[in-house]
Specification:
Structural class: mainly alpha
Radius of gyration: 22 Å
Oligomer: single chain
Strand content: under 5%
Largest sheet: 3 strands, mixed
Number of strands: 5
């Protein structure tokens, strides 16, 4: 849970010692993984590769969804929003980190830190709501297939996506502004590789219990509540699948949900472990590695998971590659690799 931290050394001269976000100070210094120089190089290489794969995979997924008329369906509309979220989140978190590693400065301005904190919170909260709405979409598709085009029409899909974005952006704005109003004490060194809100709160030397309580309420409303909606949707989906008499029918129905369910487990597993862990566990080093999984690995795997078991997406990718002169070479190489693995 969130924990209140008050620096006893600051209490006597809080007004003299503290630094406000609004004051003209240099900014923040990231510790990152500087305590582990060898690990830092490995983390940089892995993060660079994962970011490039994330960017490429999600851009391709958005492109084929827009360009291929067969993919103009609610599920792919929501999937495009998810890909856009992943691009924004990883870019805001990892571009400054990668740039700092190359330059060796490991610094960020106050305005840059505030923007990075806001975008990470906004994209994460929006993704929570969007994943729950995608679960509802799968529930309607499986449990009410005849009414699916009527229930999930274009207007409803746009409203659902817009509601997800508005919810995520507003909650992130409330959290970010609440932290910006707190005074900072003495040092501006963040024991993290990004302006993660819990890491920034450790720099505050006044009582943060009210802010942390507000953050906890928002976290409970966003994480467990959206997860509950997903569980309810899949309970109805599972009940409907079990009533299907044929094994092939059950397999086909479940396959339409498998990708989304995998993404949900990855996303919520890492998020809950970072934000709702017991107060006894307070290791910032563990938090940093969890944040890497949450911020780099999950967005990278999302387009891969959604394309591997999806015939429509694979067909659209192949069609898009065929239009490119280098695409035919890539397709033939992939086919050869696939054939060699079967020998």
């Amino acid at each position: 849970m969130y924990r209140t931290r008050t620096d006893p050394n600051c209490q006597g001269n809080v007004e003299k010692e503290k630094q406000s976000w609004g004051h003209p100070v240099a900014g923040f210094l990231f510790l990152g993984f500087s305590h582990y120089p060898k690990v830092e190089v490995i983390v940089f290489v892995l993060c660079l590769l994962m970011y490039l794969i994330t960017l490429l995979g999600n851009v391709i997924l958005i492109s084929i969804t827009v360009l291929n008329s067969h993919l103009h369906k609610p599920m792919y509309f929501f999937l495009s929003n998810l890909s856009f979220l992943d691009i924004w989140y990883t870019s805001s978190a990892f571009i400054p980190m990668l740039a700092n590693f190359v330059s060796g400065k490991n610094t960020i301005s106050f305005l840059g830190c505030a923007a990075q904190m806001y975008f990470s919170l906004a994209m994460g909260s929006t993704e929570c709501v969007l994943l729950s709405m995608m679960a509802y979409d799968r529930y309607v598709a499986i449990c009410n297939p005849l009414r699916y085009p009527i229930i999930m029409n274009k207007s409803v899909c746009v409203q659902i996506a817009a509601g997800s974005w508005v919810t995520g952006c507003l909650t992130a704005l409330v959290e970010t502004v609440s932290v910006l109003e707190l005074p900072l004490c003495r040092h501006n060194t963040i024991n993290h590789f990004a302006c993660e809100i819990l890491a920034v709160l450790k720099l505050v030397c006044v009582d943060t219990s009210m802010v942390e309580l507000m953050m906890l309420v928002i976290t409970i409303l966003i994480l467990p509540m959206t997860m509950l909606l997903i569980c309810i949707s899949y309970a109805f989906i599972l009940s409907n699948i079990l009533r299907i008499s044929s094994v092939d029918g059950q397999s086909k129905a479940f396959s339409t949900c498998a990708a989304h369910l995998t993404v949900v487990v990855l996303f919520y597993g890492t998020t809950l472990s970072m934000y709702l862990k017991p107060s006894a566990i307070d290791s910032q080093e563990i938090d940093k590695f969890i944040a890497l999984v949450y911020g780099a690995l999950t967005p990278m795997l999302n387009p891969i998971i959604y394309s591997l078991r999806n015939k429509e997406v694979k067909a659209a990718v192949k069609k898009l590659l065929i239009r490119n002169p280098f695409g035919t070479v890539l397709i033939s190489a992939l086919n050869n690799i696939g054939a060699s693995t079967l020998i």
